[in-house]
Write a structure and sequence with these properties.
heterodimer, A: mainly alpha, B: mainly alpha, 9 helices, globular, binds fe (ii) ion
């Protein structure tokens, strides 16, 4: 059984390497073979042949994901200097640092597809590349640190658990690592909410206010409804995505509503109720106009976030140049001493 | 207690300063590296604040120590409260302070106070790494491009007058030293001068002459910068003095 499985995978791999493809194209197109390979639940690796559109889709998705991790540092970094206890300060700083690490893993995963990290970053800074719109909302109070951990990391997890089984190997493996840390972040965020919800009246109010502000944007994180998500079908076919936006959103709602109840906080949706028949929560209409507006750049913090990224990048230019120049000098010294 | 607080305040204020960099570093890897240094300092600050709070009694906690003392009750040296400036200035400050911290904590390993000795034992690995990291960066910037050389030399020159205080022995230092608890700063000073001279030379940088030196931080006389930092750091717990977080 083991052997058959092993050879099955090895043969499937051979079918899609570039050297053998020419012989095979007569019978079936490369695309069909690729599809069969993916349908067989095999992971695509960097050296394997893949359709150009698959590569492009992945580069776009992984780099967007990387940008989101990096831009996503900003709304939380905003509270590192103001965290209300030393324990919270340390935990928050460590969390934001984790997000930087996630950005790194993901840029590396994108580079296995032939992309260059600096080019990807340039696209972010010029506004050409997108990042998750959720980070264009502000974090005016400490409770936002709780709400982001609980809801935003929570929504990210729903998506990322699915991506642990995505068809592109390096992406799937990066996700496995990232998911572990994300669930830790979520617990940490929930615990902040719990402390506030069990605290003074003012703290409770702070927690409820944060939930009010973050609930709907969190639901929007899953993207447009399935009938308005044109690229989803192809991504599902390639097994990059394995669940639809609406399915993931429903999963998140079903998991999160009881958590809110446990906190004694109210989810800001009058239409929210348990549907016995469906075995899911029904929810109210999402304001898609807001969603598209924030994507277009009209969210409360779009400019602020991009300015911060650009400023850091520009202010760091001389540092990167110096590091490169020094490394080049060292390499030259080594060479001349070897000669 | 005051001796422990001085060490704790150095760690807390520097950790707080470095925390400002998070999300704004010149490249992701270094953003992560500097956050690590900040986390180490904050971890050390917590151990020291807990100890200081125990020594103080009266229901003090690490957080009451950190968030409910005003500027004149802070005992950190002035160097660590200065603004971050650009990457060159932050690296220069780290280099000057980390090198001091390395020799200081090496001395503290011999402390007769068990608790301080244990804290030093735990911190020295981190501090050794910090000293290495900032020295490497100083060399990289000093021997990098013309611009980086200029920037980091300027930073070293500007920071120099804030280093004298690190080696100033006052009554508290004398007493602790005599009791075998504290560290003799005269010894640290010599080691520090030798080490910084060595690294600055490798970095192709000029070691400034010792001139006028600023002081007062250890005794609670601070720059204006610290007031703003404390206002930012302390405002939330002070708004809700009874709350737990
Ligand atoms: Fe993340
Ligand atoms: Fe996270």
């Amino acid at each position: 059984m083991y052997l058959r499985d092993f050879y099955g995978k090895a043969i499937a791999r051979i079918f899609v390497t570039e050297s053998t493809v020419k012989i095979m194209t007569k019978e079936t197109s490369l695309e069909d073979r690729f599809q069969q390979y993916v349908d067989g639940e095999n992971k695509v690796e960097p050296k394997d042949w893949m359709p150009e559109a698959y590569r492009k889709t992945l580069i776009r998705q992984i780099s967007q994901h990387a940008h989101s991790e990096v831009v996503g540092m900003l709304p939380e970094a905003n509270w590192i200097t103001r965290a209300p206890s030393l324990r919270r300060k340390v935990a928050l700083l460590a969390k934001v640092q984790d997000e930087a690490g996630h950005g790194l893993y993901l840029y590396s995963a994108a580079e296995t597809l032939g992309a260059d990290r600096m080019d990807l970053i340039k696209d972010l800074l010029s506004g050409k590349a997108k990042y998750s719109s959720i980070f264009n909302y502000p974090t005016p109070t400490w409770a936002d640190m709780g709400a982001i951990g609980w809801l935003v990391d929570g929504a990210a997890i729903a998506n990322q658990v699915m991506l642990c089984r995505t068809s592109y190997g390096p992406y799937a493996r990066a996700m496995v690592r990232i998911c572990k840390e994300e669930s830790f972040h979520q617990r940490q965020g929930y615990e902040i909410m719990m402390t506030l919800a069990r605290g003074s009246e003012a703290q409770k109010k702070m927690a409820q206010d944060a939930l009010n502000r973050w609930w709907w944007p969190s639901l929007m994180m899953f993207g447009p409804t399935d009938d308005h998500s044109p690229n989803s079908a192809q991504s599902m076919k390639w097994k990059i995505k394995r669940k639809s936006n609406d399915e993931l959103r429903q999963e998140f709602i079903d998991k999160t509503v009881p958590q809110a109840e446990f906190l004694g906080l109210r989810v800001p949706d009058d239409a929210l109720r348990w549907n016995e028949e469906r075995g899911h929560y029904d929810h109210g209409e999402i304001d898609w106009e807001e969603f598209y507006n924030v994507i277009k750049g009209n969210g409360p913090c779009n400019k602020q976030r991009m300015d911060a990224r650009n400023k850091a990048h520009d202010a760091g230019a001389w540092v990167r140049e110096a590091a490169n120049a020094y490394a080049a000098k060292q390499a030259q010294k080594k060479q001349s001493s070897a000669a | 207690m005051e001796y422990t607080l001085r060490l704790g305040d150095n760690a807390l204020i520097l950790g707080q300063r470095l925390g400002e960099w998070c999300g704004h570093g010149p490249v992701l890897e270094q953003d992560i590296a500097l956050s690590n240094v900040a986390l180490d300092h904050l971890g050390q600050a917590r151990m020291l604040m807990q100890y200081a709070a125990e020594l103080k009694g009266e229901g003090y906690t690490e957080d009451k120590m950190a968030f409910f003392r005003d500027i004149t009750e802070y005992h950190n040296c002035l160097l660590v409260e200065l603004k971050n400036g650009d990457w060159g200035k932050t690296i220069a400050r780290q280099f000057l302070f980390d090198t001091f911290n390395y020799f200081f904590y090496t001395g503290l390993l011999q402390s007769k106070d068990e608790r301080l000795q244990a804290i030093a034992q735990k911190a020295i690995k981190e501090i050794t790494y910090h000293a290495q990291w900032s020295a490497e960066w100083l060399i990289r910037l000093g021997d990098g491009t013309e611009e980086s050389h200029k920037r980091v030399q300027k930073a070293i020159d500007a920071l120099w007058e804030w280093t004298g205080e690190l080696f100033e022995m006052d009554e508290v230092d004398e007493k602790m030293c005599e009791a075998g608890i504290g560290v003799d700063l005269a010894g640290v000073k010599q080691q520090w001068h030798e080490k910084t001279a060595e690294i600055l030379e490798i970095a192709t940088l000029k070691k400034p002459e010792d001139g006028w030196m600023q002081k007062g931080g250890k005794q609670g006389e601070h720059t204006e910068y610290l007031g703003y930092m404390l206002a930012e750091m302390q405002h939330l717990p002070r708004m809700h003095p009874e709350a737990s977080w």
